[in-house]
Specification:
Length: 196
């Protein structure tokens, strides 16, 4: 492994944005995520810097499992101090200090990585949790109890509500409604790709 995905995107901007390259990389990322989720592992710090490329820049490997946790059940209680991941890839339920988080938190990060591969920019920029959360809500809308039951228990809902328009299944605010890696791999988008 010679470089990470972030370095690759910065160095080879045109090649990194090629649709077939993005498709192949996303497929490999989802395959890796599906594998460790099937083995009850939550990565908790997925980001381009933790995705390594081989010397031919064709195969990816997920790396840095230092924050990962093994889960014996699909949902487990943690506190914010248990999750130290990178702010721009943190799911809203983590920023809001929800004690229940699941494999859906990894899928949020995959959605952020996918958007970054396509645009060559962070989807949600900021250094502090409240900055990231503000950017998430300005792009995806502020949820209500219908979109995310229990949200009002996590966050002050006196914010101006934005019209919620969300078509990206990996970036659904409610973690219970976020797509799984296996379901994402079944999408028509990957119909013409061979297993790597």
């Amino acid at each position: 492994m010679k470089r990470d995905l972030k370095n690759y995107m910065d160095t080879f901007q045109e090649t990194a944005r090629m649709p077939d390259k993005i498709k192949s990389f996303l497929y490999q990322i989802l395959s890796g995520v599906a594998y460790f989720h099937a083995h009850k592992i939550l990565h908790r710090d997925l980001k381009p810097q933790n995705i390594l490329l081989d010397s031919e820049q064709k195969k990816l490997k997920l790396a840095d499992f230092g924050l990962s946790r093994t889960l014996d059940i699909p949902s487990i209680r943690y506190t914010r101090s248990d999750y130290l991941g990178t702010p721009s890839y943190k799911a809203p339920e983590l920023i809001l200090d929800s004690q229940n988080y699941t494999y859906a938190t990894d899928m949020w990060a995959v959605g952020c990585i996918f958007a970054e591969m396509v645009t060559q920019n962070l989807l949600f920029e900021g250094q502090l949790d409240f900055e990231i959360l503000g950017n998430i809500f300005s792009i995806l809308g502020t949820p209500d109890e219908i979109a995310w039951p229990g949200f009002t228990d996590l966050y002050d809902t006196d914010l101006k509500l934005f019209q919620h328009q969300n078509s990206k299944q990996m970036l659904v605010l409610n973690p219970d409604r976020r797509i799984t890696a296996l379901d994402a791999l079944k999408h028509q988008y990957f119909a013409d790709i061979e297993s790597v």
